[in-house]
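Think of the structure tokens as a kind of shorthand, similar to the way a musician reads notation: each symbol stands for something richer, in this case the local conformation of the backbone. In the example below we present two proteins back to back. Begin with the first one, reading the sequence and then the tokens, and try to describe in your own words what changes along the chain.
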Amino acid sequence: MIAFDHVIHYVKDLTHFRFPNDYLSLQEGGRHDTLGTFNYLSYFDLKYIEFIDIFDQTLVERASLDEKEYVSFASSLKRIGYQEGFVRMCFRTEDIEILKHHFNQLGLKTIGPNRMSRTKPDGTVLSWSLLYLEPIEGFDFELPFFIQWGEPEMEREGQLMPYFQPLDITDIFILAKDTKQMTQFFEKYLNFEHTEEMLVKVNSPNIHVMQGDVNKIEHVKIKSELYNDTFKTHGGMYTFY
């Protein structure tokens, strides 16, 4: 029903950002005109890392008060105190209405699907729909959100293939104040399987839940035939192996 799509990394002064040692190449994305953000994208296949920054904080603040956008990825930036680092994960689906029904049946309230678009550098318009989960009481984690792209996967793959890098996001590490609560969220609502060491799901990186003082994505692990390195940049920990 869902597959991992991307993880968001908030980087201030993004237009001047260069990934350490050029391990990742970044492609200019575009602007989310109503949310006040813009992005650069680093593709592996249809999975990618979205590096995001703000061009108009007033619009971000306005989104955080909007009944449809207060749970948006842009509003997350305000909730995390505009601290750099990994913000949220996104999973893609081929039928966002069925996914909405699935969550509602499990007792979760949803917002959307919200129709969105952004203008690419070449002037063409990219469209998609987003589905958000309303906050869960007593669980202050920036919940994953869900996307249905406006084009079929094969068509998107053909368009994006020139930007694919021989890398793969294999593991994501999440800090949790209550590891049992975090684990149960991924099991119950996203159908991850809990093994002894991690949460696993087809078409998704492995999720590792670690004890911490906050609920947040801490670390992304990337499979590479060229690099072997671990470092932190702009609040996000990366391992290449």
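Once you have a description of the first chain, move to the second and do the same.
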Amino acid sequence: MLDSTTEQNLSGLKEDLKKMENSNKKESMANILFKIDALKFGVHQLQNGKASPYYVDLRVIPSFPDAFHEICDFYDQTITKQTGLKNFDRIAAIPLAGIPFASQIAYNLKKPFLYVRKGIELSGRDRRVEGVLASGDKVLLVDDLVMTGLTLKNAADAVRAEGGVVTEAVVFLDREEGGAELLVKNGIKLHSLLKISDVASALFEMGAIDRESLKAIQKQVKKP
């Protein structure tokens, strides 16, 4: 159940989405993430045990159809402009959070959809990728966010082990903690729709977060 603050924030969500076309889209999306409670500030402990001054849960986005539609459209535009539809044959999702985004994007762009199976060892005989994948197929990886880049790197290894070719990946949010650099070392160019430093700056300008929260996030960002 949504709390009262989130419900109040949602009242203006459709209006914000309508304004997107006439404003900075990245700033509008940062505001939407804040309004749907996908982005929370304050000290949080991540699954890897690391403390973070903010918490991102993009898994809630598909529960808000208007926001989900706009974000998937933003993915489509970014992929079309930065990657080019002729430069990949298939789209592969990173489970679990990347699946709803990747499946919708694949449908929108009329590309075959795959997903990488979670927890399958590369040395085993089990199939690592679900879907039709032929040797030499160029596969675009899609996930919701990137932190260290290890999850995307492992997914690329799995696709490559099945004969696919991976040179690019797309995420909605880059936490800027070394993920892009790790992927480059493994032959993968990362495209991100948003960077956490830009999101924090936009929210600070809107008055949604204070300077202390802004500085905490900027300190968390790993400089390349």
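Compare your description with these statements about the second chain. The beta strands are 39-45, 51-56, 90-93, 113-116, 129-130, 138-146, 165-174, 189-195.
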